[in-house]
């Protein structure tokens, strides 16, 4: 009986502690709840909400971050960022965008197509704020800018480069998650390889199936998939898999084969510096440019609205040539340049689905 | 007996409280060790919970978690580990969204159809594991985990545009098409946002759960089988039938997990439909000790950590602090429940010993409790 008293005391004391903690929070928060709208500042500020993987994925999200940073230094504005949690629902996205808009950020940019329904809802609530959505044109409004890219064109060039560089005639494509967006990368890449070398073999693998988006976030998955393709004879591996792609690059570099990066110029990514000699090139998707352009347009008082398309012609998608070894391969770069010219001249139409 | 119950209640509450407090303390230690201000993030989280819109998010999320945890708890009471709630609710949401889009019925009937289809799908998927267990003795832990993976692949295939999926023009998403408005469940509009109508159904289901388990013959059979399968069998309970029925019910409730979102928010099953709720449900059922009230508070707590930690990002802290807190809660729960259980047993033995020594008859109702 005495023991139960002791345990009860401990229990009661800790319960009281927890209760008092919540109690003092409660008082404060009810004030805060009413004063949220007044916290908006006059100072110009732009915000981005990241896609799964978040900042530090050395790829898609980091590209958006680069655009934001550029705007911060060149346009002298404040910035804000927010990251998603895995397994969240639409309500959380709405909440995140609302929070960013309410704090006076303009524009607010959603990185990735999964923000589309949420952007539509929040944009209607904040008519004076410009919203940007990357990779989606399905939700439109006066104050929504749809920033989209011709990923298949850049991937086509990667296919040309891969086919020209490969000695075994087998190349690999690794997609993060099997969604229509990544299938655009696959379609362009496969077409580029086949047009260059009809006998070449393309091994295509996807890391996860939706709604499991860890295929964009887990490098170990990318590494395992790349190993499989290398074992099957591939000597160039192109990974369109966000952060998971860094695993593929690691595997290819360790095996002494070529990797092709995606979204950012991964040769220049500090996180991948160890493997950079094996990063042949990267299909850049200039998300940073699109983010910067949108922020600048808002600052200039002429906010972008509707579809803003970035293709090979505007260098919105491109093939990076920062690896000197790649630049030295004259026949490869020549073939890539020719293909690029043909696409811009519309002599080649790249498929958007495999 | 009554006084003894009070005793047990105290022990029952001591477990979770001990777990929560030690999880909090451990979190503070982790934060301090990594050079982060240990108190400020927690204060921000509590601040966050004061906002009306966050409160709505918490309630809605708690409703979703509640359903998942109930599904898990039904299995737990039977000593069945239904790890497959995750796959069950996702498949159920997807199939019911397809059906809901395809038909057009007057309001309540439409909703009812969607809900019934979801329950049947969930029950069917869990039933596979149940049948395997009852007929072949396959461990339900293994089979339900594998069925999760199969459900993921099945959904990915079903949602392809050539099957049941739709790719809206200009979108990179895949959906099952939009459910017509007659299939929506109205939400309760508050200043902070909308509370899904189905959230109330979720909490009401807790009452049904309590009633069925504690006030019906079936519930008694289920608890008896959970406590000792052989003893239950000896007293005339058909254990195989119980395995099958409880898996089916667990699956049917799991099938409801996706409903608040489907009927109240997205009105379609798309690629960003949340996953992992089934696993959080396991944590919540554990923390709530399979008790409908306990589960309610644990669901609220986990939802609070989820939603309040999201705001840490914008205040210069990592929102993963919330994940650390949740993880530590799980460990602390397991440890503290075991400690409290052992303590309870030891104390009971001691009491019996004392009374025997004192020459008293073994009467339970003259025990005094100091608390």
Automatic annotation (TrEMBL), chain B:
InterPro entries: ABC_transp_permease. It is a multi-pass membrane protein. Its main location: membrane. Keywords: Cell membrane, Membrane, Transmembrane, Transmembrane helix. It is found in: Cell membrane. Signal peptide: none annotated. The keyword Cell membrane applies. The chain crosses the membrane at residues 56-76, 88-105, 111-132, 141-160, 195-213, 243-263, 269-287, 294-312, 324-340. It comes from the Bacteria. This is ABC transporter permease. The lineage of its organism: Bacteria, Bacillati, Actinomycetota, Actinomycetes, Kitasatosporales.
